[in-house]
Design a protein that fits this description.
The structure is a single chain. The longest helix has about 30 residues, at about 230-260. The chain has eleven helices and eleven strands. A six-stranded mixed β-sheet has the order 2-1-3-6-4-5, sandwiched between helices. The protein has a five-stranded antiparallel β-sheet with strand order 8-9-7-10-11, with helices on one face. The chain folds into two domains: about 10-250, Zn-dependent exopeptidases (Aminopeptidase); about 265-360, Alpha-Beta Plaits (2-Layer Sandwich), CATH 3.30.70.1070. Strand 1, helix 2 and strand 2 form a beta-alpha-beta unit. By secondary structure, it is α/β, with parallel strands linked by helices. Helix 2 packs across helix 9 (about 230-260) and helix 8 (about 220-225) crosses helix 9. The chain is globular. Helices cover about 40% and strands about 20% of the residues.
């Protein structure tokens, strides 16, 4: 017991010594509100479910993580434009953005929970969700000018997202995976981690997810989502995912301050002064034995690198952006969720940073 106590004290001292002076900030965004009710069920409104679950989530974080700063884009029933939500999150210098929504479908039998990150999946079901959530901008005066001509109802408008790869994709997917794991533990039907282009996620400069709690159009799920018990279950699930994410965040911060090396697969180490592009396919917590695993979907020649407790699987490697874009197009039917990652001298960078480096040469 004495040895454990000494170890605990030592670990605490290490954490305090290396912790950033800036508190970890989580921004919680209850979707819709005010004049925008969101999806409507027979007995309830999306905006009310979103707000109640968000407030419960925020309270859980405050109670259990006093070192975390919680910011709400709204904590009452009021209308907040999409652009203002992301601007508020960026102004707060957030470390994680959690957008809470409730789904709806023409089919009353549709049910389950899903978590979205930014990206182009291009499936009809995902696009319908993105179109509905983005269409809130149509309530704003002068939306065409404010949103750079973006029309949420037109598939052509979404082309603008094609080359806008967020450098926070990995972290967003990590939190999304934790969230879906917790939904499964709570006996919720798992609709998985998905990708689609939501304006509010695209504009935030931090890891960001949009959670669809369930279908208010399904009578059974609506009763669950409108109940205090159901809202507690959903808030607790998201909180547990947040606790895991924050734990990993703290571990990596300590490691970053105690070591100058980053463990990564040597195949991702760029040649000196050259940018290397690859496609990231998916991530797992346990290393896969070989590329015969079903998760590779028949694709051979994949590699992986380790980051934190995750194994991240990649495909292709080139110094030419056009080549990686062609490769991405070639495998889009098999891996529509694949996205480009970039390394420079062994360090992962964003596409925007890679573009700046290329222009300097």
């Amino acid at each position: 017991m004495k040895r454990f106590f000494v170890y605990f004290i030592f670990s605490t001292i290490l954490f305090v010594s290396y912790a950033s002076t800036k508190p970890f900030t989580v921004v919680i965004d209850p979707g819709h509100g005010g004049k925008d009710p969101g999806a409507m069920g027979p007995n309830g409104r999306e905006k009310d479910v979103n707000l109640k679950v968000s407030l419960k989530l925020g309270e859980l974080i405050k109670q259990n993580n006093p070192d975390v700063k919680v910011v709400f884009t709204r904590d009452v029933d009021k209308y907040v434009p999409l652009q203002d939500r992301s601007s508020l999150a960026n102004k707060a210098n957030g470390d994680l953005f959690i957008c809470i929504h409730t789904n709806a479908s023409k089919s009353r039998s549709a049910y389950g929970s899903e978590t979205y990150t930014i990206g182009l999946d291009k499936t009809n079901a995902n696009f319908e969700v993105a179109k509905r959530e983005n269409s809130v901008i149509l309530l704003e005066d002068g939306y065409k000018e404010k949103y750079q001509g973006f029309d949420p109802t037109s598939p052509d408008s979404y082309i603008m997202f094609e080359f806008m790869q967020s450098k926070f994709s990995d972290k967003s997917i990590e939190f999304a995976a934790y969230t879906q794991d917790e939904f499964i533990s709570s006996k919720r039907y798992n609709r998985g981690v998905r990708q689609e282009n939501f304006w509010v996620l695209h504009q935030t400069k931090m890891p960001s997810v949009l959670i669809e709690l369930g279908f208010i159009s399904n009578p059974t799920e609506e009763r669950f989502l409108l109940s205090n018990e159901g809202q507690d279950i959903m808030a607790n699930s998201i909180y547990k995912a947040f606790a895991k994410y924050k734990h990993e965040y703290d571990k990596k911060n300590i490691a970053a301050n105690t070591s100058s090396s980053i463990k990564t697969d040597t195949t991702l180490q760029s040649s000196d002064n050259k940018v290397t592009y690859q496609l990231q396919l998916f991530i797992t917590r346990k290393q896969l034995v070989d590329d015969k695993d079903p998760q590779f979907r028949g694709l051979v020649g994949c590699t992986f690198y380790e980051e934190g407790d995750w194994f991240k699987y990649t495909y292709g490697s080139t110094n030419d952006l056009d080549e990686i874009l062609k490769l991405k197009n070639n495998i889009k039917s098999t891996f529509p969720e694949a996205f480009i990652i970039v390394f420079y001298n062994g360090k992962k960078i964003s596409l925007q940073e890679a573009e700046k480096i290329s222009k300097q040469k």
